Queue: 4 jobs
Job 1
Amino acid sequence: MTPSNTSDEQDDEQDMPRFEFSDEELNSNRNGFLSARQREMTAALAQGIRSSSRSGVWVILGFMLLGLCIIGALALQSFDARRMATLGPQYILGLCVTVVAVFGMIALSLFLSNRQADKLAVAQVLAVEGVVRHDSDSSSSGFTSHYVYFGQKRFAYGDDLSNIFPEGARFRVYYCKAGRMEMILSFERLS
């Protein structure tokens, strides 16, 4: 008699992404709408994107100030009064340009993050139907990306989903897309 689940199988099951949805949510997705729980989930994810980008600003500013202090201290140590008169304005202009460039990158980062979050908050339900095919790709760093194809549509995951979506089976998948981010909301097996 063999045990139903070995510890390795249980570990694999715990690492797998969970697609938890109810029949009510599946029906809502069939009609082209997000369920209330799915709207809450996408709104929370959008809020997480916004707060993450805002907290990253403080890290960037901290490293910028640290770098400016180190560069300023090194520059002041190597200057005498005569060189300071000629090179001082160039260093100050260079530091000002650096500060403006860093603030520009921060503003661009916040803009792009907020735009991504806004797209996610109003994401529409999309559907794709097709026969399942699997593929994977390993990088030189040892990270493996697993791909699930439904017809021509590809979804990328860090885990192998062949036990959820068996090769050769036909599925209809309901998902939402915000920029490059795609999330499977629900699915149904057709054959």
Job 2
Amino acid sequence: MTSATRVHRYQVQIVWTGNTGEGTANYRAYKRDHEISVTGKQAPILGTSDPLFRGDADRYNPEELLVSALSACHMLWVLHLCADAGITITEYSDEPLGLMNENADGSGEFTEVTLRPVMKISDAGMISQAKALHHRAHELCAIARSVNFPVVCAPTVLAG
């Protein structure tokens, strides 16, 4: 580690809340429900597995949280870079899509996530610069830099 490197720690707590009275006596005996929390944060994230794997469709699953983390990290970098560049963003949304293969042994792996941010800026003359900053944000995003599958960014920048 060089002297310029700083280490940031992120500690969470995961508590399984899906014991229905039999523990994990068999595959169907328990719920996949759990809570994700961080000391000092307001409310836990209610998690589960994907409904295809006996999860609760009303709760977040790890796959959705991974795709969300990629999108949120990208958005936060774009907001920062645009603010620094004097580009005023007035609206921002994203509907990212993650693709995961399920293997014959039941394991899975993401093969790609596509970010599809739609951003509105106040100055039409800065659209091309704003699009370029999406690519820079992608290079800086810690989450995108940490995964072993492609993260594609297909931004739309509008003026208005």
Job 3
Amino acid sequence: MNLNESRKTGWLAGVIEQILTSLARLPQWIVPSVLGAALLFIITAMRGVVLLITVPPSPQGAFAFLVALVVATSAGAVAGVIYAASRSVLRPLGPVGDALTGALAGCAYVLAILVPAKFLLGDDTLDTSESWIIACGFGAGFGVACTILYWYYRRRTS
């Protein structure tokens, strides 16, 4: 990208282009982990900043925010590894494998947040077996919906 193009598109587009170029240089199996970690870091950071602004400042609140950032980033990386492993196994199944990968990845991302929250932070979201089923169902549905959107995108761009 030359200087004139960066002026037309803006600095954010340039940063995003640099990030995507860097991701393209990574080994294919690690990209989902990096993206998962980055996505959950960004989501947690945005939530944490809002909470830090709305709640009276305290050392405990700042510490909880930092712990949440570490847990979410780690959980995103683990969920990315689960996606990469399941994708390599399920890819030969074609569209069924894609849908199953989406369901597994969705469950992995939802549980990657809820399980550490339950056991490390004392969250009571997963207290009953029904809540585990609901979390897995929500994650699987979200994953399949994202897979369908991906299929739609690929069909429109090809």
Job 4
Amino acid sequence: MRLSYKLLFGLYLSVLLWLLLFKFSYDIVSVIEHHQARSVNLIPFAGLSSGNAREMIENVIVFIPLGLLFSINIRSLSFWYKLGVISLISLAVETFQFILGIGITDVTDLITNMVGGLIGLALYNLAGKYVSEKVLHRCAAGIIFILLAAVLFLRFFVVRVRY
């Protein structure tokens, strides 16, 4: 069973990176070639609007499973160490967006991604107090698998990417 959790973790990370870096585009080379716009925002929550608020909520939501999957797969590390690794993953994504010129490098994204990971870690710890580890792992993995399947189904059969 541990192998399936690790595979789910790898699949989730792959889909997460595909979403964050290439917005689910098939033509990654085209995204890199045609969207060279480097921009950095170091002011948290600058220009807050309804569109930005939606994006911030989406960033939080998309990182919650990362916190859950870290807790399932890497139990030997402390809560704060896991949160640090999640923060480093978010920082790496923002850095790659800048290097490749495919998005806005934004400190708000770092913060909201970290909050999502924090919520996932906290939910796991809270649920672990009331539910057995085996049940918790199966439920969390099942929910994450269903969400991933739904996202991939929508991407391949419903939503068109504009790149």
